[in-house]
Design brief:
133 residues, alpha+beta, two-stranded antiparallel sheet, single chain, three-stranded antiparallel sheet, binds iron/sulfur cluster
Length: 133
């Protein structure tokens, strides 16, 4: 598979769906924006018994998506950082091809070894064990 994220593109941020957070994601993002974890969670996070995710603003896709791209890029959640190497995409040629419909980075750049893609998919599983039971 080939993949290279395209400069200026934010299409994956604009798709329907939720950005799930691990505890490590929460701590990293709060620190990056200079807030306490508790204050960040109150403002930006929706937590249920099993999982937590970023709240979705009423008229935007993500609180942190700005004109210039991701406002917390250096501390962005694992789900965003690992995309498109999510287990459900790496393990399904059909899902991978469908994702290429909105991600212009798929099919571009250098060849990615399947082992490297699978290692990233495994990282995603480990960050979100409850999503991949
Ligand atoms: S859709 Fe693909 S190319 Fe565009 S920002 Fe996301 S990963 Fe990069």
């Amino acid at each position: 598979m080939r993949f290279e994220c395209q400069p200026g593109c934010t299409e994956c941020c604009r798709q329907q769906g939720f950005v799930y957070l691990s505890e490590a994601d929460l701590v990293r993002a709060a620190k990056f924006v200079g807030m306490s974890v508790a204050a960040f969670e109150r403002k930006y996070v929706y937590r249920t018994r099993n999982r937590m995710r970023l709240r979705v603003p009423r008229r935007a896709h993500c609180h942190f998506l700005h004109d210039g791209g991701c406002g917390i890029h250096p501390a962005k959640p694992a789900q965003c950082r690992i995309f498109p190497f999510w287990p459900e995409l790496v393990n399904s040629p059909r899902a991978w091809a469908k994702t290429a419909g909105y991600c212009p980075g798929i099919g571009m750049g250098r060849l990615i070894q399947i082992k490297s893609a699978q290692a990233q998919a495994e990282e995603m599983r480990q960050e979100h064990p409850k999503l991949y039971r």
